[in-house]
Amino acid sequence: MSKQPDVLDIAERLWTGETSTSETHPMRTWGGLAEVADGVAFTPSFANVSALDTDEGLFLVDTGSSLMAGEIHRTLREWSDSRLNTAVYSHGHIDHVFGVPVWEAESEANGWSQPTVIAHDALPARFDRYILTAGYNGIINRRQFNIKDLEWPTEYRYPDRTYSDHLNLEVGGMRAELHHAKGETDDHTWTWFPDRNVLCCGDLFIWASPNAGNPQKVQRYPREWAEALREMLALYDGPDGGPDVLLPGHGFPVMGADRIRQALGDTADLLDSLVDQTLALMNQGARLDEIIHAVTPPPRLMERPYLQPVYDEPEFIVRTVWRLYGGWWDGNPATLQPAPERALAGELAGLAGGASALADRALALLESSTDAEDGGPDDAALRLAGHLAELAWQVEPADPGIQRIRRRIFEARAEAATSTMAQGVFSWAARESDSHHHG
Question: pLDDT tens digit string along 308-334?
């Protein structure tokens, strides 16, 4: 059977810092398989799939994306020939829920009983919303992942069974305990297998700063997310002891109780800190702008190899907290009922001496301000340059010189960005610069 790459070797090197998540990105498609415990297989994909063999067939946590479903099925078939008995969706994001039809076709062909799909009560409404907003979701995911031809699906394999708070199952002599959590989504499930000492946490841990602030997606729940992580930690005080193996929705396994405790606890601490700091400033009457630039994640946590801002980032989580507790208005009276962006840009360009003056200043900021440590563009200067280049382009979107400057500014922003979220938006803006319309 194929075991390339060596999943557990990568997991070890990530933990010790021999490789980093910028090099070994948790959102990559890896392939391969590792048997992480007796009768437990883990296959890293864009969204991971975990499989547990029982006396009555396989139990899957997550099923993969439509693009990877066939390969995941083939990989697992090298490990086990058991029929699929049960599949749990950890949540309804499309990279986790499109593998079931491959297994159903196999069961049909072999005359086997069809599998049962289980998810949280809120998951069907997510699928309904995805159908309603297929156009929007296609656009934002093309932008987020730089996939030009991505088409958002409108047909889904809905669950056969849902639950509200928790659900205890026994499948083929193996116990499975499903627990609802709010976190990245409102329909999250984490699954504890006490007989195997294996915890499948879905996307509540992803080998990156938590995806609680995605700029283009619906509300996330950082406080409840932290609470869910602490509920997982409480398993160590339970009758079955705690997990020896943590299998995340993205990234690689975490092996050993001490490491699992640290990973879950640190992630919860980071989320709690961001929520506490943001709420404290909100309660003092601060505007969103002030809060974004004042909240600082604890440095000790940002040194952790599994909390690096390679997908989402803490600054975006601050915005999530504001949106959850404070609404959409940012506290600036001018933005409550704003002028059209192009009208404001035109006024400022007139004051500055024309759109080209704004663009030239943006370029000067990029070229003259460098970071003393690494020689790259200074973050504060890049942020200002982005504003000025965008204002200039709003006024004169067809001007070739302004197009070139805007493209160069946002290419620099994309290169300096650490997170998939920021890289996607800035790269999209750079490409958009040559168009004569605002998308």
Answer: 999 999 999 999 999 999 999 999 999
CA distance 65 to 183: 21
Whether this prediction's pTM lies above 0.90 is answered by yes
Domains of the chain: 7-270 (3.60.15.30), 339-432 (no CATH)
